[in-house]
Design a protein that fits this description.
heterotrimer; A alpha/beta; B mainly alpha; C mainly alpha; A: alpha/beta; Rossmann fold; 6-stranded mixed sheet; 4-stranded antiparallel sheet; 10 strands; B: about 75% helix
Chain lengths: ~250, ~290, ~325
């Protein structure tokens, strides 16, 4: 399977503190890659490098390179184009204080699509792909903030895929949700990976085990081990991986 | 291969950025120009003689001592009355009132008072104090009018200040058996002093700058009055602002007008600065 | 702890209770009534009194509003009665000192409306752009600088604005448009916009700063630039705050008297950009000192109209924006 993202010798500093140490990690297309590790291990930081949301942090410095489809995302790519290709769903659902329709249409409108017919089609398609069309088709003009937490998060997923990214980053996107909503979103991910590539940061190892194809274990800014999820959980090579998975620390 | 966002997007973004920069420069230029011009035309006309004498047709002299004194008197008298009243209202709203409807009515009333333009205050003041209570055109009538006008300011800032006092302070005091007033007097008010002082400074700023409300209540006279005169009915007096208006519009003495304007500007600057210093002190305390 | 009180020696009762502990000695005053109870009673009375005082204070605001409304109505209604409300509100000629006086205030109403509109049209775009710049673009140092500048602008007394308007704006307009005199509606609009600017800027800035960061992050993550994010997400999210800024500006402009009096010419014309005009506020102020009889009463009626106008506008706009919020 092709690598859609490749990180080579990636080092990252927040001011004087080095948050990522020499990360070499490839993300395979159409797979779900789970990034796991204890708090502060750098998994979120690494993921935010993939869509350059780290740029927003004062004093953030990078060495090494990250390539999307072979193109260096720092040197050879406009950051706004990158973020269209690499979408993100946040830990806490953050729909805009607008109608459901406008939330989904925001991305496409940004990128130049203005015709009503085209937007209608995109909105419907995205909401269907996010498995939330039936719940919203009669309320498209209503404010998105009126939905429940789980629904809002699925709305955010729909919003992210409306611009047809190559990769979808999910930063602990189910940690604030109840088990039923979480289950729905996990099902969704399994469907979505047919079209997109998913990278997810999760604290929930059972979740990683359930739905991811590849797991990468981070600790203190280093990538300790990565491989097929089955292998990582049943037969970890590194002692630290084993300790984390069996709950010795976390 | 350096794909960029569409040209039309980039153009729109650039245009918006330019507009924002223009507005920011405009504002800075406006303020700098305004202040510069006023000081430039006003300061040369300020002399010790100017500040310390009263106007005298006989001597052909224009002095603004009476106006300075009148301004000071009005500030003092207004504050002395409005501070207890305003703080009292805020204390009632925040510490005593239980009926939510009543609270919203009072707050609506305060908002209403805040929205009334000063010329109407002037008129109402004239009707109520000058005529109905027969105080006559006087500094006292002017002060009373300004009391009503600045009440909302004091109430608002005091209320905000009271709200920042943690409930734990109150509970602690009450748990020791103190009564409400005792608690307020010993715990709540001392903790909100800075906010009250800020409100006070803001009110002073408003009073010093007020003119329309004083035209028909405090009048346009230029005699030198004592503090005792100021609190006695019937003694009219024009403040710095009213004097500026008279000298500029009615007498065409622009030199004098600009001098007064420069003084008012400097006063405003000082008042702003003190408000900021108190706010800083407050912030340090809270942190 | 032995604390002797002055009454000890005098009171035979004290001697009896001596045995039960020296604390007890303190609790009884000469008259035999427990002094702690007495001071407690005193405290209770004080509490009750203060509670009453604070209640009275609370009622003050309401009392003041009622007072002012009552006085304005009682002095304003008579003239309206005598002149006739339609002639008063819609009559287009104001000639209060003519042999056959006419008291139509339409010119003043329209002037106030146009003047306020003009000031808002100029001040809101500029003020909003500046607020956006302040809240979202400027570095901390520059932001602090502009904020101080804006605060200063807000504090300058209206007569000072009027003075500068008289000396700079009026001649400028006169020369620019080749008019005999530059004191007209246009000059007033310019002065009013400058006066309204600081309010618009500071309230809008507060509203913009309050927009949750999450919305802006979501927008950036979708590929929007910061400028696009600010205008497409932050500004709409702050719209109710920005709306209140506009309402504030309207209130300030419509109620301004002194500055406007110095630059607008003061003739009771139907409004025209280059005509000398009178606003509702200046109509009151310019004739009040030498007015008498019906003319004087008519001026109070104008004040009443202005008062009602402002109440209606503020309530209407607040209602509209509250509805929009929902």
């Amino acid at each position: 399977m092709a690598n859609i993202i490749e990180a080579h010798n990636l080092n990252l500093w927040y001011g004087d503190h080095q948050a990522l140490k020499n990360i070499n990690l490839d993300i395979q297309e159409h797979k779900i890659t789970a990034l796991i590790g204890p708090s502060g291990c750098g998994k979120s930081t690494f993921m935010k490098t993939l869509n350059r949301m780290n740029d927003l942090v004062d004093g953030c410095r990078i060495e090494g390179d990250v390539r999307l489809n072979g193109v260096d995302i720092y040197k050879d790519m406009d950051v706004n184009i990158l973020r269209k290709k690499v979408g993100m769903v946040f830990q806490k659902a953050n729909p805009f204080p607008m109608s459901i329709y406008d939330n989904i249409a925001y991305g496409p409108r940004l990128h130049g699509i203005h015709g009503k017919a085209a937007l209608d089609e995109i909105v419907e398609r995205s909401l269907k792909q996010a498995a939330i069309w039936d719940e919203t088709k009669d309320r498209l003009k209503k404010n998105a903030l009126g939905m429940s937490g789980g629904q809002q998060q699925r709305l955010c997923i729909a919003r992210a895929i409306a611009v047809e990214p190559d990769v979808l980053l999910m930063d602990e996107s189910t940690s604030a949700l109840d088990p039923i909503s979480t289950g729905k979103i996990e099902e969704l991910c399994l469907e979505l990976k047919k079209k997109y590539t998913i990278v997810m940061v999760t604290h929930n190892m059972q979740q990683a085990n359930r739905i991811s194809d590849i797991t990468a274990f981070f600790l203190l800014g280093e990538l300790i081990e990565t491989g097929a999820t089955q292998d990582i959980f049943l037969n970890p090579q590194n002692k630290k991986t084993e300790e984390y998975i069996t709950g010795r620390f976390g | 291969m350096h794909e960029k966002i569409s040209l039309s997007r980039r153009v729109k973004i650039k245009v918006l950025n330019i507009l924002m920069y223009i507005s920011f420069i405009l504002i800075l230029a406006l303020v700098a120009g305004l202040i510069g011009y006023i000081l430039f035309r006003g300061i040369p006309n300020i002399s010790w003689k100017f500040l310390s004498s009263k106007p005298s047709l006989l001597n052909g002299v224009i002095g603004i001592l009476p106006n300075i004194l009148n301004t000071i008197y009005i500030v003092l008298i207004t504050l002395v009355i409005v501070l207890p009243l305003g703080v009292g209202t805020a204390v009632y709203l925040n510490e005593y009132a239980t009926n939510r409807k009543l609270v919203s009515v009072i707050e609506f009333a305060t908002e209403t008072l805040a929205g009334i333009p000063s010329i109407i205050y002037g008129l109402a003041g004239m009707l109520i104090f000058v005529q109905f209570f027969s105080i006559g055109t006087s500094l006292l009538a002017g002060s009373l009018t300004l009391v009503i006008m600045t009440l909302p300011t004091i109430v608002r800032t005091t209320q905000e200040s009271l709200k920042t006092v943690p409930d734990s302070y109150r509970e602690g005091s009450l748990a020791l058996g103190s009564g409400k007033w005792h608690m307020i007097r010993t715990v709540v008010l001392p903790s909100s002093i800075d906010g009250i002082v800020t409100g006070c400074i803001l009110a002073i700023g408003r009073i010093v700058g007020e003119s329309a409300a004083l035209l028909f209540t405090a009048g346009m006279a230029n005699n030198i009055l004592s503090l005792k005169d100021a609190v006695t009915p019937g003694n009219a007096g024009s403040t710095l602002t009213v004097a500026l208006y008279m000298y500029a519009k009615e007498r065409g003495e622009f030199g004098v007008a600009f001098a007064i304007a420069a003084i008012l500007l400097i006063l405003t600057l000082l008042i702003n600065l003190s408000a900021k210093l108190v706010a800083k002190k407050l912030k340090v305390k809270v942190d | 702890m032995q604390i002797s009180s002055a009454t000890d020696a005098k009171n035979p009762k004290e001697a009896k209770s001596e045995g039960s502990g020296s604390m007890q000695t303190k609790l009884y005053s000469a008259s035999g009534v427990p002094s702690m109870e007495k001071s407690q009673k005193k405290k209770n009375i004080a509490e009750k009194i203060m509670s009453g005082i604070f209640f009275v204070c609370g009622m003050l605001a309401i009392a003041f509003v009622l007072f002012i409304t009552a006085f304005l109505i009682t002095s304003g209604v008579p003239a309206i009665g005598k002149i006739g409300i339609t002639d008063f509100l819609f009559g287009s000629v104001w000639a209060s000192t003519a042999a056959e006086p006419k008291f139509g205030i339409l010119p003043f109403i329209l002037t106030s409306v146009y003047g306020t509109l003009g000031a808002i049209i100029i001040a809101v775009p500029i003020g909003l752009l500046c607020a956006i710049f302040l809240a979202k673009m400027a570095t901390n140092k520059i932001a602090a600088l502009i904020r101080s500048a804006v605060e200063l602008l807000a504090g300058i007394p209206s007569v000072v604005y009027g003075l500068v308007g008289m000396i700079i704006i009026v001649p400028m307009i006169r020369d620019m448009f080749n008019l005999p005199d530059g004191a007209n509606l246009l000059s007033a609009i310019i002065v009013l916009s400058v006066m309204v600017l600081p309010n618009v800027i500071s309230v809008s800035e507060t509203a913009l700063l309050a927009v949750p960061r999450e919305y802006e992050e979501a927008s950036l993550a979708l590929g929007a630039t910061w400028t696009e994010t600010v205008f497409k997400v932050s500004v709409p999210a702050a719209s109710s705050g920005i709306a209140s800024a506009v309402v504030l500006g309207v209130g300030r402009a419509i109620g301004e008297a002194m500055a406007v009096m110095m630059v607008s010419g003061n003739v009771a014309n139907m409004p025209g950009l280059f005509k000398s005009v009178r606003f509702l506020t200046t109509a009151i102020a310019s004739e009040m000192s030498y007015s008498s009889g019906l003319q004087r009463q008519a001026l109070f009626s104008i004040a009443l109209v202005l008062f009602v106008f402002i109440m209606i506008i503020t309530m209407l706009l607040n209602f509209v924006f509250k509805k929009k919020k929902e």
